[in-house]
């Protein structure tokens, strides 16, 4: 008997949860809309400035890593040549 009551309660809570989904979705969407109104979007000039900064930084790091790679490669080549002679 107790099992039958427990199963009935579980079914009711499952159905209740299923029925409450549209309400939860609407509440979530209202919250999203409210938060999106608080967002301050960057202007065109700010986007251009930050894009230029990012591009310059990427090229600087690329040049740095190219230099480090060249030095490491050159050093290892010389080391291997030296070790192969001896």
Tell me what the structure shows.
This protein is mainly alpha-helical and 86 residues long. The chain folds into two domains: 1-39; 41-86. Helices cover 92% and strands 0% of the residues. The radius of gyration is 32 Å and the shape is elongated.
In short:
The chain is mainly α and 86 residues long. The protein is 92% helix and 0% strand.
Question: Helix and strand layout, with pairings?
Answer:
Blueprint lengths: L1 H37 L5 H42 L1
SSE class: mainly alpha
Envelope shape: elongated
- The helix/strand order is HH
Query: What's the total count of β strands?
Result: 0
How can the largest sheet be summarized?
none
Unreliable residue stretches: none
Which radius of gyration do the C-alpha atoms yield?
A: 32 Å
Distance, first to last CA: 89 Å
Q: Please tell me the total number of domains.
A: 2
Beta-strand portion reads: under 5%
- Based on the structure, what is the oligomeric state of the protein chains? single chain
Q: Percent range for helical residues?
A: over 70%
What is the average of the pLDDT values?
88
H/I helix tally? 2
């Amino acid at each position: 008997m107790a099992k039958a009551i427990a199963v009935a309660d579980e079914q009711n809570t499952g159905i209740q949860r299923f029925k409450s989904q549209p309400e939860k979705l609407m509440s979530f969407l209202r919250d999203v809309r409210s938060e999106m109104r608080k967002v301050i979007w960057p202007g065109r000039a700010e986007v251009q400035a930050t894009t230029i900064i990012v591009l310059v930084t990427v090229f600087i790091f690329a040049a740095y890593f190219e230099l480090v790679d060249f030095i490491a490669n050159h050093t290892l080549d010389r080391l291997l040549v030296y070790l192969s002679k001896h």
